[in-house]
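Check out a protein:
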Amino acid sequence: MELIVISGLSGAGKSKVASFLEDMGFYVVDNMPVPLLPKFAELCMAAPGRYERVALVTDIRGGQTFEGLFGALDALHEMGCEHKILFVEAEAETIIKRYKETRRIHPLAGSTLSLDGAVRQERTVLAPVRQRADYVIDTTVLSTAKLRGELLRLFGRDADRPAMCVSVTSFGFKYGIPMEADLVLDVRFLPNPYYIAELRHQTGLDDGVYQFVFGYQQTQEFMGYLEQLMGFLLPQYVEEGKTVLVVAVGCTGGKHRSVAVTRALAEFIRQKGYQAVENHRDMTRG
């Protein structure tokens, strides 16, 4: 059985960590009384296959000093139940800001303690737990996606890592940039088939337009640089935990140049081993 004990500062993100681990297949129990931990582990071990991955959240809400926690963890070790401690923290200023935004009450805040004092006291109380932790995650500057990526790195299995799908969409700037776009590429600098009478009513999916666009040196050079960029970016987004990436390629009307480049880029992404969906938002307009 894989057992993760999640602890850390209030407001640092333990709930998000627990939710992500639950998505990864962990059976999560929040704020379990420490004395029950060995008995709970015993029950899980008695049901092989049902509770292979378990995460328990324990924190200051119980008013404990964590001496009991260490005793419970020692008992787990004696039972042959190996475990890891994950400690979640953030800078005091960040935690205070989060509490002010949510208007929640800190577990240690009372008539004699300010919010700042409560945060600093909790850090002192939890210092022994942090010292004993196997992993420490500081969420001060971590986005939700990066936090998820870090958990996947630490505890993920291959099945936990969803394949990223790349949606490559052509569009016309005169109709507006797609709101869902993560990356926007402007190809209006490329030679425009619109001014060739026999190509004007065709699209970038037609061979005549495609060959016209890619018959120019600047298009070839642009695609070379673009392929280098995407070759670098795609594994970075996968590592972050991104599941959908939208790349929008725009020209003036979204019918010729952007369609041709989208077609070529989607094919390159597939050749790199990623899922790629090709869309042409404005190709039939005008």
User: Anything to note?
Assistant: Residues 171 and 281 are 5 Å apart (CA to CA). DSSP finds eleven helices and nine strands in the chain. The longest strand covers residues 165-172.
